[in-house]
Specification:
By secondary structure, the protein is of the alpha/beta class. Helix content is 23%, strand content 30%. Strand 8, helix 3 (158-166) and strand 9 (171-176) form a beta-alpha-beta unit. It starts with 13 loop residues before the first strand and ends with a helix.
């Protein structure tokens, strides 16, 4: 994607087509794109998706990245642009820029345990990390997913969660804030699952995405177990425009989230997340 003058062409969307689209929850859809010119992406990175005539938003990759030409994006319809993207149908065109940003440092966990902590739609940016860990399963000890949502109906990828839970290569713990009459799982916040998982702090490298308050409390709970903040990685979300670190729209203290993130060690992110209105 970069041209002879650096990243200039990264400001220009390339055309892509919607291959498949399906509804995940009442307000969330997944779009599989046909993007023949796409560079290889890494788990934790994002694309800028452009709905023609409406606008552009950053959306993380949420699928298997082994085929870069068929990226998957899970999108919650919460604003004009995301609603327009979720309304696209197979064969529709959209603009794509990317991939951008710093991804999950999975290599840091090799030889130890991978612990993934997700809240709500935060599972979507973490899903490629799980695929990558399972593809190199022999390089890791335990691979553990701790996932929470508001209700059972808000859980992403429920069939896949069941399949993962049934497999021996991935341990899955799921909780909800408010249970339905049919729910037979845990009720409560994701932090409650940390103790239940029986983690070994000397082997744990953690990756977390979700509401910032959730990521903060999860990191603090891991810290009480003895996991250092430098081994906990979080993904931040800020209003991005250029995605290249030029416009300053996503500045967070000294960091530009689009360029220096969205993934940061919690040791680096914690003071930024704790500063009011930053």
């Amino acid at each position: 994607m970069p041209s002879a003058d650096g990243q200039a062409c990264a400001l220009v969307p390339r055309a892509a087509t919607v291959g498949r689209v399906w509804q995940e929850t009442h307000d969330t859809w997944s779009l599989e794109l046909e993007d023949t010119d796409a560079p290889q992406a890494q788990p934790g990175q994002f694309n800028m998706l452009y709905a023609f005539g409406v606008g552009e938003v950053p959306i993380s990759f949420s699928g298997d990245l082994s085929d870069p030409t068929r990226p998957l994006h899970t999108i919650r319809a919460v604003g004009a642009v995301t609603r327009a993207l979720c309304a696209l149908t197979p064969g529709s065109s959209l603009g794509v820029r990317g991939p951008f940003g710093v991804g999950w440092p999975l290599d840091a966990a090799r030889g130890g345990d991978v612990v993934v902590l997700a809240g709500g739609i935060g599972l979507a940016p973490l899903r490629p990390l799980l695929y990558a860990a399972l593809a190199s399963r022999g390089d890791f000890g335990r691979v553990v997913l701790l996932y929470g949502s508001r209700t059972p109906a808000d859980l992403l990828y429920p069939a896949e969660l069941d399949a993962w839970r049934a497999a021996s290569e991935l341990e899955v713990f799921v909780t909800v804030d408010a249970a339905s009459p049919e729910w037979r799982g845990d009720v409560g916040v994701v932090t409650n699952l940390v103790a239940k998982a029986g983690l070994d702090p000397t082997r744990t490298t953690a990756f977390s995405c979700g509401p910032e308050i959730m990521m903060t409390f999860c990191a603090r709970r891991l810290q009480t177990l003895g996991v250092p903040d430098t081994k906990v990685h979080v993904s931040l979300e800020r209003n991005m425009k250029c995605a290249l670190g030029w416009c300053g729209r996503c500045q967070l203290g000294s960091e530009l989230v689009c360029r220096d993130g969205p993934v940061l060690p919690f040791a680096q992110a914690a003071p930024l997340m704790a500063t009011r209105e930053l």
